[in-house]
Design brief:
Elements lengths: L1 H15 L9 H10 L6 E4 L6 H8 L3 E6 L2 H13 L9 E2 L12 E7 L8 H11 E12 L6 H11 L9 H10 L3 E13 H6 L5 H12 L6 H4 L5 E12 L1
Parallel strand pairs: 1-2, 1-4, 2-3, 4-5
Antiparallel strand pairs: 5-7, 6-7
Helix pairs in contact: 1-4, 6-9
């Protein structure tokens, strides 16, 4: 876990540099819409990174606690919070997704965006999230998500680009994880994140040999999902599952 922390600490400046446009990406917009939380709801944003999901939920009137296991990411979140002129200081908590330091039934919602594929144990995260939300509370994720049946291909590609990648789950797999934690899935959607491929590599300092191998894999994208990923040598897109469950 210390290796993960040090790696993502190095990436923090690149993520912080994405700026306010990152708050308006389709996956965050759909996550907010499907959660439909009222103003004043107390929300934990798990693995907040540079804080964009926390900022977006804060703009809706929610009271948001950004959490992340990486100190540098939380420093970026605190800086972003100040730059946006939000009230007070960001109430950041340094924690792993699998061990959330909150009391039982203490929050209205737990959300995680663009991060669950890095969790070492998604089942543990789901159980922790279910434990700390109130009855009727929400647990929601938005993350890269391969089409059902193509999990191995997608994850092999992502690990070639980023060795810290754990496992991106298909919608079918996420449904099983959340239901297995005692939650009831109430809404699911799939949106897409567009990438310049070289920038996609740059975000994680992917070395030249791995870039070459990843491009070879993209060239050999299975015919059945070529339209899903849309790789043309310059740009591609990644499917994102948005899933909302209630306790």
């Amino acid at each position: 876990m210390s290796d993960v922390r040090s790696t993502w600490g190095r990436y923090s400046s690149a993520f912080a540099a994405e700026g306010t446009a990152a708050e308006t990406r389709e996956s965050i917009r759909r996550l907010i819409e499907l959660c439909a939380l009222p103003a004043g709801a107390l929300v934990l944003d798990v693995a907040t990174g540079a804080g964009y999901t926390a900022f977006a939920f804060t703009r809706t009137g929610c009271r948001v606690i950004p959490s992340d296991p990486t100190h540098e990411m939380l420093l970026a979140t605190k800086q972003g919070w100040r730059e946006r002129g939000f009230d007070g200081d960001a109430r950041c908590v340094e924690a792993w997704a699998e061990a959330l330091p909150f009391a039982d039934a203490s929050l209205d919602a737990v959300v995680s965006h663009r991060a669950p594929h890095q969790f070492s144990d998604a089942d543990a995260f789901a159980r922790e999230a279910a434990r700390i939300v109130k009855p009727g509370g929400i647990v929601a994720i938005a993350d890269q998500s391969p089409p059902d049946g193509y999990e191995t291909w997608h994850n092999d590609l992502e690990r070639m680009r980023d060795p810290t990648h754990e496992h991106a789950r298909s919608p079918h797999e996420w449904h099983a994880v959340l239901e297995g934690a005692g939650l009831t899935v109430r809404a699911t959607d799939v949106v897409y994140q567009e990438h310049d491929v070289e920038e996609w590599f740059d975000r994680v300092d992917c070395p030249p040999d791995r870039r070459k191998q990843a491009r070879t894999m993209l060239d050999a994208t299975p015919e059945e999902i070529r339209d899903v990923y849309g790789y043309d040598g310059v740009r591609m897109r990644t499917p994102q599952c948005v899933m909302v469950a209630t306790l």
